[in-house]
Structure to design on (393 residues):
């Protein structure tokens, strides 16, 4: 049985070209970029090249890229760094209810340190209303952090509109673009953002690598303390192989973007259409077209996403659920809570996230297996309901 991986929003396989580029920096070119000898300078050149590759893919200058230990760290640095650099007495942050936990939990932490946070709601398609942002702005607001595209349902946020308003008020704009970078065109100037987070392992690069774009003159304090690396913005000896891998991954993603976008869209629509055709009581989540091309979030009424994902796994198909069973109760993800789909539907949410390695034949196999799984689980659920033993399964 061929394994079919449809969980690219959780992580992607490392591109062989990326792996090849990294290997040399584990083996021969192991120098510390801070060293003045040739070993060090070789490593430094590699880090500089990678910085250029990352900057190029988002329309930034190389000097505006700070390498981090992943997307989570980039988000933490953006929020805490601007919060701790704030000296004019402003303490208000605006974010959304559907952010990644790397943003949400950093906001929660900052609330314990005297900052005030507004968590904006989203509509049924997961869209933040720019007018809500406008209304939430106060004299005290110094930062808006709204994700570029959501990792569970794929909705792309109206970021440039939001950033435009923020600009007029002198408010810093951060966006978590971990899911969108490398999947759709991302340009920091078109979006009008001051800070942007990205992560290597979501775009066929290595895990534990990422970057924060910091627009020139954006006040940001370090969150780690030590040496002078990354111009004092992120201390610690550079993860040279990881940085090289991230750079290569960005170069490849930028090169292949238009073709891959079309391909993902074709495969995603192929899956979506077959599911809608073959299965009753299904709902597709997210915005109908302002949505990442590789994400398909679908909800199947009356059963749980957990159970569907387990059955798919038995067939060699990897996807992820939007609701988890904990101690006999179903807990929806914060994103599904925020879009306010009825619980009976939301609990049956499965996210299929596609990637470069997927083929039409794989999609067709999923579309063939899925109806049988759904039917089986629904009959079971009915049986259990009739016996009054319905638990969380
Ligand atoms: C994966 C992800 C992160 C976290 O990035 P890591 O590199 O895994 O720490 C942050 N935000 C979004 C939207 C993500 O999908």
């Amino acid at each position: 049985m061929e394994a079919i991986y449809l969980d690219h929003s959780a992580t992607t396989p490392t591109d062989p070209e990326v792996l090849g580029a990294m290997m040399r920096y584990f083996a021969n070119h192991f120098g510390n970029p801070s060293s003045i000898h040739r070993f060090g300078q070789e490593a430094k050149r590699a880090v500089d090249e990678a910085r250029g590759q990352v900057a190029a893919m988002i329309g930034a200058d190389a000097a505006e890229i700070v390498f981090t230990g992943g997307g989570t760290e980039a988000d933490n640095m953006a929020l805490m760094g601007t919060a701790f650099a704030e000296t004019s007495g402003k303490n208000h942050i605006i974010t959304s209810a559907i952010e990644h936990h790397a943003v949400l939990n950093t906001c929660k932490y900052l609330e314990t340190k005297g900052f005030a946070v507004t968590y904006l709601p989203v509509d049924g398609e997961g869209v933040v209303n720019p007018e809500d942002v406008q209304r939430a702005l106060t004299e005290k607001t110094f930062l808006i952090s709204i994700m570029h595209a959501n990792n569970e349902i794929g909705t792309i946020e109206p970021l440039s509109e939001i950033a435009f308003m923020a600009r007029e008020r002198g408010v810093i704009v951060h966006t978590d673009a971990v899911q969108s970078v490398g999947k759709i065109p991302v340009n920091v100037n078109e979006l009008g953002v001051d800070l942007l987070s990205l992560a290597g392992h979501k775009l066929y690069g290595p895990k534990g690598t990422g970057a924060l774009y910091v627009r020139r003159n954006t006040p940001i304090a370090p969150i780690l303390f030590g040496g002078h690396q990354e111009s004092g913005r992120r201390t610690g000896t550079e993860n040279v192989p990881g940085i090289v891998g991230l750079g290569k991954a960005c170069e490849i993603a930028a090169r292949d973007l238009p073709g891959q976008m079309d391909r993902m869209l074709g495969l995603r629509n192929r899956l979506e259409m077959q599911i809608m055709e073959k299965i009753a009581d299904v709902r597709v989540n997210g915005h109908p077209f302002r949505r990442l091309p590789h994400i398909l979030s679908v909800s199947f009424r009356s059963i749980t996403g957990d159970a569907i994902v387990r059955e798919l796994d038995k067939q060699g198909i990897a996807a992820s659920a939007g609701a988890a069973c904990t101690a006999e109760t179903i807990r929806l993800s914060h994103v599904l809570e925020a879009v306010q789909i009825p619980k009976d539907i939301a609990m049956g949410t499965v996210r299929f996230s596609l990637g470069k390695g997927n083929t039409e034949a794989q999609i067709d196999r999923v579309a063939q297996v899925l109806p049988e799984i759904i039917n089986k689980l629904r009959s079971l659920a009915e049986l259990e309901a009739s016996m009054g033993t319905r638990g969380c399964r």
Observations:
- Residues 72 and 272 are 31 Å apart (CA to CA).
